[in-house]
Specification:
This protein is α/β, with parallel strands linked by helices and about 400 residues long. The protein has helices at about 5-15, 65-75, 90-105, 115-130, 145-150, 165-175, 195-205, 230, 260-270, 270-275, 280-295, 300-320, 340-350, 380-395; strands spanning about 25-30, 35-40, 45-50, 110, 135-140, 155-160, 180-185, 185-190, 195, 210-215, 240-245, 255-260, 330-335, 355, 360, 370-375. The chain contains 14 helices and 16 strands. The strands form 4 sheets. It has a 7-stranded mixed β-sheet with strand order 4-12-11-10-7-5-6, with helices on both faces. Strands 1-2-3-14 form a 4-stranded mixed β-sheet, covered by helices on one side. Strands 13-16-15 form a 3-stranded antiparallel β-sheet. Helix 13 crosses helix 14 (about 380-395).
Length: about 400
């Protein structure tokens, strides 16, 4: 086999379909988020505004977070030095897990190197704890959940996205005595829609199923202490396992689950993705702890972020742009074509200093390509003005359809 030719063919397919992804070399500057510096391929540097980051609240620049990280690195050095079982558990890791358990009102929490690994490792391990487990997974669950369910070797059922009636049909068709778990998300990040948490919890009670929710795009953002949509809706006590991230609203790195002490202990003891991975650097754990602690009381950041999201949606809708609006903080603009999506992204960056990545297949289905904006509390009215003007002009330039404006 000509291996080089096979690799070339695979890359060429991406180019031909208009969905080849290019890394943009940007440098965030402390204290100036969401501004950054873009280094072009020719080596020249240009100031840009980041509109697609997952540091939703700017906590990656917060003095409390940076101070905690500096203090930890001065005290302990760079890395953790091992896995959690072999020299890689420090006071910083234990403090973070205690902070997260308190956040979600659970007995315990367990931190991983990412929320992807937390999902994959936990969901792939659960059938070892509950032989014969059937996992019911929402069709639009994140790739990490899909991978964990796929790898666990147990039975799985896929229910149509947010379709509680279909989930009921699947539950009714299986052995009532079989152990069951329903895996879903609180906010689905590509459309920004919410999962029907209460209705799913009702079905879980009726069919004696465990509940597993991914709150990755909600932790830090919703609820009086930032514990997520389940906290906002008063449903945390009805969820058995909560998955979250420290790399989005908390602005650092890592992922976790929060659950009963015994369940966390069992995952810790059985999951290869936890056992055989070097633990987070202590400084990262310290920064995450400071961020979680701070956002338990800083409602102002959440309020300003939601207001900026509301204003941006309103103004883009006013131009007739096809906004996907389910009421969350995520602002997707439907383009529907990978070539146009990439072209608009390139022109926003090159001509207007606005950085937003195109979202193409396989992240979203073909024909639903989009630009996904994530306004933060520190995007200014002037930045919003610049974005709206640029989108208006580029939409006309690409001759894309607009919604009819009401009189």
């Amino acid at each position: 086999m000509n291996y080089a030719a096979a690799v070339d063919a695979a890359l060429n397919r991406l180019h031909e379909e208009g969905r080849y992804r290019t890394f943009i070399d940007i440098e965030r500057r402390k204290g100036h988020f969401p501004n950054a510096v873009w280094t072009r391929p020719d080596g020249t540097q240009h100031d840009i505004t980041v509109w697609c980051g997952n540091d939703y609240l700017g906590m990656g620049q917060h003095p409390a977070v940076l101070g905690a990280m500096h203090e930890a690195i001065d005290a302990t050095g760079a890395g953790s030095g091992g896995t959690r079982n072999i020299s890689g558990t420090t006071v910083f890791h234990k403090r973070l897990e205690a902070e997260l358990a308190d956040l979600h009102h659970k007995e315990a929490a367990l931190i991983f190197t990412s929320a992807y690994i937390a999902n994959d490792a936990t969901l792939s391990t659960l059938p070892r704890l509950f032989p014969g487990l059937i996992i019911y997974s929402d069709a639009l669950n994140h790739a990490s959940m899909i991978e964990g369910v796929r790898r666990n070797g147990g039975a799985k059922r896929i229910f149509r996205h947010n379709d509680v009636a279909h989930l009921r049909e699947l539950l009714e068709a299986d052995d009532p005595a079989a152990p069951k778990l329903i895996a879903f998300e609180s906010i689905y990040s590509m459309d920004g829609d919410f999962g029907p948490i209460a209705a799913i919890c009702d079905l879980a009670d009726e069919f004696n199923a465990l509940t597993y929710i991914d709150e990755v795009h909600a932790v830090g953002m919703y609820g009086p202490r930032g514990a997520g949509v389940c906290e906002r809706d008063g449903l945390m006590n009805r969820i058995d396992i909560i998955n979250g991230t420290l790399a989005k609203a908390y602005g650092v790195m890592g992922g976790y689950i929060a659950a009963s002490a015994k369940l966390c202990d069992a995952i810790r003891s059985y999951a290869p993705g936890f056992i055989f991975t070097t633990s987070l650097p202590p400084a990262v754990a310290a920064g995450a702890t400071a961020s979680v602690r701070h956002l338990k009381s800083d409602q102002g950041l959440r309020d300003r972020q939601q207001e900026n999201a509301r204003v941006l949606k309103m103004r883009l809708k006013g131009l007739g742009l096809p906004i996907i609006d389910h009421g969350s903080h995520i602002v997707p603009v439907h383009v529907g074509d990978p070539v146009h999506c990439k072209a608009i992204s390139d022109m926003l960056l090159g001509d207007h200093g606005i950085y937003v990545q195109p979202i193409n297949f396989p992240t979203v289905p073909r024909g639903t390509e989009r630009l996904r904006f994530t306004p933060s509390p520190v995007h200014t009215p002037g930045m919003i003005d610049a974005l709206v003007r640029a989108m208006d002009g580029l939409w006309s330039h690409c001759a894309l359809n607009r919604a009819e404006l009401s009189a």
